[in-house]
Structures are given as structure tokens and as C-alpha cells.
Write a structure and sequence with these properties.
By secondary structure, the chain is mainly β. Helix content is about 0%, strand content about 45%. It is globular. It starts with a strand and ends with a strand.
């Protein structure tokens, strides 16, 4: 039974930083399987933030240069220079069927397993 658990969310002022972590249990990290971070703000659709596949990171344009995704014992998302537009529920996701590749990392429907989410609020 695969379980993804996010942590590290919170409230910060604009310009601040947060570091999100996603611990995966019931599964051994495989670089060939894509893992990513998505977010959903109230009244908006869920959007891809960043992903890592075969050791290569991918970023949405809105966060490129400010966020860094990494994969070790946990999947982490270092978020710097946060702004109010980054306010959202952040979700960790994994594609454990190997359907996702670099070019499709932002397609949330390709991911098979999701965490419960962690709230990020920037004021």
C-alpha cells in the first residue's frame, strides 16, 4: 500500500521561503517514475508546479528560478521568494505506472498516487 505524506507547509510573508517534503512509504524510489508537486488555489484548477523524472527537474514557468525540486529519501520542494500568488494547497504526486515522461510531467491525470496536501499561505 503506497502512501504519500506531505509536510512543511505554513504561513509566510511575501519574499519568504518554505521547504515542502513528501515521504513515500510502500514504494522504493525509482528515477524512471515521475514524481511531482501540484497546487490548487481556491476557485482554480490544479496545476503542476514541478516534477522530477530520470533525475531531471521540470518547472512551471511561474516558479522557475524560485523553486527547486529534489529527490532523495524524500521528495522535497524548496520554495524561495514566495509571493501571494503561490498561496495554495500543495500536493505530492507519483506516477507508479511509468506513464509520465518529461514532456507530460504537468498532466495531473497521469499520476497514480497522491498525498493529502499541505497548505501554503503567503501574505
Amino acid at each position: 500500500h503506497v502512501q504519500l505524506v506531505e509536510s512543511g507547509g505554513g504561513s509566510v510573508q511575501a519574499g519568504g521561503s518554505l521547504r515542502l517534503s513528501c515521504v513515500v512509504s510502500g514504494y522504493t524510489f525509482n528515477k524512471g517514475y515521475c514524481m511531482g508537486w501540484f497546487r490548487q488555489a481556491p476557485g482554480k484548477e490544479r496545476e503542476g508546479v514541478a516534477a522530477i523524472w530520470n533525475g531531471r527537474p521540470y518547472y512551471a514557468g511561474a516558479v522557475n528560478g524560485r523553486f527547486t525540486i529534489s529527490q532523495g529519501d524524500a521528495l522535497t520542494l524548496q520554495m524561495n521568494n514566495l509571493n501571494p500568488e503561490d498561496t495554495a494547497m500543495y500536493y505530492c504526486a507519483a506516477d507508479l505506472q511509468g506513464r509520465t515522461y518529461g514532456g507530460s510531467w504537468a498532466r495531473d491525470y497521469e499520476y497514480t498516487d497522491w498525498g493529502q496536501g499541505t497548505q501554503v499561505t503567503v501574505s
